[in-house]
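Researcher: We're teaching a course module on how sequence relates to structure. For the next exercise, students receive a sequence and then see the predicted structure as tokens, so they can try to spot secondary structure elements on their own. Here is the exercise chain.
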Amino acid sequence: MAVVLLVSEEGLTKSYPLSRSPIIAGRSSHCNIVLTNVLCSGEHCQFVLTEGGQARVMDLGSTNGVSVNGSSTLHCKLFIGDEIYMGDAKAWLDTSKMTIQEKQVHTKDSDLKRHPAKPVIKLPPLPKSEKTGKLLASGKAPKETQSNPHKTSTAVKNIRKARSVASKKKSQ
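Model: And here is the predicted structure for the students to work with:
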């Protein structure tokens, strides 16, 4: 099958198979995709397939730019569902002629399918209040539920220090 770009301008839609050779879109008569829109430059942008078969668009220094899904771009990968605008002309990928592999390459989460995430490390559950059962905002367990019962809190240390100072004063 093939990766095909559909281009719609003034109610007419045409299809253009993409390849590793750049396909130029613009108003100039020597362009592969000739656009009539006055907002387009002579050589507005180019479409190409990378070695891995990924469709890309690259602005060729056009006056009004290229936008993909409403954001201006100089160059970017194209995915299924992306809307590419060159002036008032709209382009998108035709999925009806793509193989399963081509669809995977042009699906935004395809990188996850080819490079699965590493195993997740299980973390202990977050501490919850004993009274309400809700997660504690600080992320720390209350002092009475801390995992190390032998650890002396700062408050206890301060009380012991105050008692020690008081007992020394009494003995003097």
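Model: If you want an answer key for the exercise: The CA atoms of residues 92 and 163 lie 78 Å apart. The longest strand covers residues 4-9.
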